[in-house]
């Protein structure tokens, strides 16, 4: 059992099919804390028309001392910089490192294949859409080789080590 010691904002990001949603679901199950809000990219796309409105939503949750874990592609460096600017030391950026061939192998929806063969599909991140590399990555998890459970345990260890989470006695 775990408890939140210090609220945080965590973005789990990376290319499509790198394991973002699966990892966030695993964290939800293991942390099982009422003070954590989980948002998936699918939720975000439906609700927010721009990145600034997402930041505003996160700030409103933060006023209530809630932690957030958001799984999203987050392909642009400018968005990552906004997160650092807005959330400072309480911001955790977790990049899932997984090569495109492995992401495409995992892709159950066929999005990679579809993007390669459709002429109008120039914005799919992972094939012909741009995923900007970053020098700002604070935390990298290699989901090509690590299982979801191993990746989850690494993230929880990070949260404990940095004082965000503690184990209940």
Helix content: 40-55%
Query: Any idea what the radius of gyration is?
Result: 16 Å
CATH architecture annotation name? 3-Layer(aba) Sandwich
Q: Separation of termini? A: 8 Å
Q: Can you tell me the number of structural domains?
A: 1
CATH superfamily: P-loop containing nucleotide triphosphate hydrolases
Shape: globular
User: How many beta strands in the DSSP annotation?
Assistant: 7
Strand order of the largest sheet: 3-4-2-5-6
Instruction: Using the coordinates above, name the CATH class.
Output: Alpha Beta
Report the average pLDDT across residues: 87
Question: Structural class, please?
Answer: alpha/beta
Which stretches are poorly predicted, pLDDT < 50 over at least 5 residues? Answer: none
CATH topology: Rossmann fold
The portion of residues forming beta strands comes to 15-25%
Major sheet attributes: 5 strands, parallel
Provide a count of the helices: 7
């Amino acid at each position: 059992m775990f408890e939140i010691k210090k609220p945080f904002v965590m973005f789990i990001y990376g290319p499509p099919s790198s394991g973002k949603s699966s990892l966030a679901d695993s964290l939800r199950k293991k942390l099982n804390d009422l003070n954590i809000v989980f948002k998936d990219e699918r939720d975000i796309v439906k609700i927010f028309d721009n990145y600034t409105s997402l930041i505003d939503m996160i700030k409103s949750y933060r006023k209530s001392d809630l932690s957030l874990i958001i799984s999203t592609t987050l392909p642009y460096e400018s968005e990552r910089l906004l997160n650092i600017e807005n959330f400072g030391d309480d911001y955790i950026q977790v990049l899932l490192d997984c090569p495109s061939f492995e992401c495409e192998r995992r892709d159950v929806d066929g999005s990679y294949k579809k993007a390669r063969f459709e002429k109008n599909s120039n914005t799919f991140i992972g094939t012909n859409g741009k995923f900007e590399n970053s020098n700002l990555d604070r935390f990298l998890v290699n989901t090509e080789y690590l299982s979801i459970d191993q990746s989850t345990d690494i993230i929880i260890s990070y949260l404990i080590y940095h004082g965000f989470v503690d184990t209940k006695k």
